[in-house]
Amino acid sequence: MKFLLSLTILVAAIFVVYGSSASWGRRNSNDYLLSRQVEVRSPIKNNYWNVNVDFPRAGTVNYYNISAIFVYDNFKNTSGAAPALWSGGPGFRFAQINLRSQVNRGLNSTIEIYGR
Ligand SMILES: *[C@@H]1O[C@H](CO)[C@@H](O)[C@H](O)[C@H]1NC(C)=O
Ligand SMILES: *[C@@H]1O[C@H](CO)[C@@H](O)[C@H](O)[C@H]1NC(C)=O
Ligand SMILES: *[C@@H]1O[C@H](CO)[C@@H](O)[C@H](O)[C@H]1NC(C)=O
């Protein structure tokens, strides 16, 4: 039992580190899909990708309040990039999402931003 609990915590910890899908905020049924983009990078030998995704894209303006952000790891195994929300997000009109891939692994993540 104790072992099982430790295992669960370990798995949870791994999920936090390598958990490649994430979401912030809550999507309401009448929200608009403000942005959907797929970031794909090929693996770099002995190095990792650190990609910043800015919303709205440089040179564009967003008039909507963000309600939710979803990041999906398209690898669907544990080798995808770890997403983090670096600034903005729900309640703001901008967001910067960071994708950090694992060493020697590329990334393929989809970022969806909803708002109203
Ligand atoms: C966005 O949120 C602000 C502060 O909550 C609110 O004043 C504003 O009306 C909202 N804008 C839209 C387009 O809903
Ligand atoms: C990235 O993932 C999407 C969704 O699974 C897939 O359709 C696409 O082919 C992938 N892109 C690459 C370059 O692997
Ligand atoms: C995870 O999936 C991706 C895409 O299918 C693949 O390129 C990669 O080698 C896989 N990683 C592992 C550790 O199996």
UniProtKB/TrEMBL annotation:
It comes from the Eukaryota. Keywords: Signal. InterPro entries: MBF2. The keyword Signal applies. Residues 1-19 form the signal peptide. The keyword Signal applies. This is Probable salivary secreted peptide. It comes from Drosophila pseudoobscura pseudoobscura. The gene is LOC117183714.
